[in-house]
Amino acid sequence: MVRDGDEIEERVSDRKAREPRLEAADLVARVARLHFEFGLTHQETADSLGLSRVKVTRMVKQARQSGLVKITIASDASPYAELEQEMMERFGLTEVIVVPSPSADAANLRSLLALGTVSYITRILRDDMTVAVGLSRTIGEAARLAAADTQVRRSTAFVSLVGSLREGGAGSDSPFGASAMLAQAFGGSVEHLHAPIIVRSEAVALELMRDPAIAQSLERAAKADVLLAGVGGRVDRIDLSGQGYLEPHEWEELGAAGMVGDMCARYFDKDGRTVQHDVGSRVIGLTLEQLQKIPTRLIVAGGASKRVAVRAVLRGHLATVLVTDFKTAQDLLKKA
């Protein structure tokens, strides 16, 4: 007697046996053409190629993520135009870009926020601009997307506005990596801040910031036309304490002093004001007050874990442009 489970397994095995034996890239390309160019549904594409619908869905996603398929909408119309306008009016922002809110996938949310960031950067970049780049996983993702996709070329200078990390200092999550990838994507130049993000004492920080090369980079970042930065929350953040820059007791002290988040390793309270703590004197980078003087300040952050921090950024007038997700935008308006 054949059980139901055995019958299902036999059918799955039979289907796999009938699937075409093609190189992976060739098969993805065939799926992409049938779905995007000829308008077949996922199921119709699966039937045409003898594949499972699940496999076709996965390949369609792969085709878009790899850059094989590039979709261009000949319109600037936003699906959340009314919400964006309300956000601009309520918080005094020059522009708001709202992206969809995925279910519970932090990586997917970061990708969506990065897409919104790239669309804005591509639109506003001009020759001879200077763009200051902060420490942010989402800015790093935006740099990756831009490097893989954009065709725009500008003689823009990208400069790191805070020191780098010991671990992964060359990766796109760091200002070094993100700045370099953005410069490569847009055909511009890059200038790094060659110093750690946080040093062991105020005396060391002062000595480093007097170094001509570091001082010149900081001065150039302070005079930037555009700031690109993310926001760290109390929980969802780049963990500087885990990398040895902050002692556990210092992190606890920051929380006790009212810290709700950080921007470029500058810790702020619920009103977006600098939290007074010794760690602030040891950061190699611009202060919040210096960041506020940059004319265009694009801040990108979203998700439930960042909402308190984003609200503080808006209260402190740290942003002029905000990239966030639908649910976060609704929550910010509700609690404004």
Q: Topology, please?
A:
Layout (H helix, E strand, L loop, with lengths): L3 H15 L5 H14 L4 H8 L3 H13 L15 H11 L3 E5 L6 H19 L5 E4 L3 H13 L7 E4 L14 H12 L2 E3 L10 H8 L2 H11 L3 E5 L17 H9 L4 E3 L2 E3 L19 H4 L4 E5 L6 H9 L5 E5 H9 L2
Parallel strand pairs: 1-9, 2-3, 2-5, 3-4, 5-8, 8-9
Antiparallel strand pairs: 6-7
Helix pairs in contact: 2-4, 3-4, 5-14, 6-7, 7-8
Count of beta strands: 9
Shape, per Cα inertia axes: globular
Ends: how far apart?
66 Å
What share of residues is helical?
A: 40-55%
**Largest beta sheet, briefly?**
7 strands, parallel
Rg (CA only):
23 Å
Strand order of the largest sheet: 1-9-8-5-2-3-4
Which CATH-level-2 architecture of the largest domain? 3-Layer(aba) Sandwich
Q: What count of structural domains?
A: 2
Tell me the strand percentage band.
Answer: 5-15%
Counted by DSSP, the helix tally is: 14
What class would the helix/strand composition place it in? alpha/beta
Mean pLDDT: 88
Here the CATH topology of the largest domain equals Rossmann fold
Secondary-structure element order, as H and E?
Answer: HHHHHEHEHEHEHHEHEEHEHEH
CATH class annotation of the largest domain: Alpha Beta
Low-pLDDT parts are 15-22, 168-172
Describe this structure in words.
Helix 5 (81-91) crosses helix 14. With 336 residues, this protein is of the alpha/beta class. The protein has helices at 4-18, 24-37, 42-49, 53-65, 81-91, 106-124, 137-149, 175-186, 202-209, 212-222, 248-256, 288-291, 307-315, 326-334, and strands at residues 95-99, 130-133, 157-160, 189-191, 226-230, 261-263, 266-268, 296-300, 321-325. The chain is built from 14 helices and nine strands. The protein folds into two domains: 4-65, Orthogonal Bundle (Arc Repressor Mutant, subunit A); 81-334, 3-Layer(aba) Sandwich (Rossmann fold), CATH 3.40.50. A hairpin with a 2-residue loop joins strand 6 and strand 7 (266-268).
